[in-house]
Description:
It contains 5 helices and 8 strands, in the order αβββαββββααβα. The protein is α/β, with parallel strands linked by helices.
Amino acid sequence: MKFVAALIIGCAFAAPSADLMPNLPDAPPFTTNTYSGYLTVSATKSLHYVFAESEVDPANSPVVIWFNGGPGCSSMLAFMQENGPLCIDDGEDYIKTNPYPWNQRLNMLWIESPAGVGYSHAGTAQDLQTNDMLQSEDALAALKQWYVKYPEYLANELFVSGESYAGIYVPYLTW
């Protein structure tokens, strides 16, 4: 019985240790567990993500997905200049702690989409051809893969947000 309980606890808190990103070079340490990795959306496409747990109560805080738009703008722009735990201000050449990160009270998930944007990659030239529907299908596949990696967040509220052309990405994904 003890083995079964340990197995259930291990599955309930399954954040992938291989994706844990304790710090960035020459930057202040993250204040919460922060992860970076890939979400496989097909045999030849993977979308890059960064996930920062809430500073307050990760187990109960909502999960917010963030997309930058463009199309073609990396969500790492938001992660490092807008709403992430660290930031580089315009005109500065160093990384500092963001005094107002969104992960103060939210679990933040930045996804770089579509494939070919930022660190997201595609194996074929065909995979780089996209449209709004394909992007949303890939984003949904990525979100499903994210929940496989982080099943402990299945019960948390989920919000989808972004800026610019993400005004297309967000409603397509929520649809």
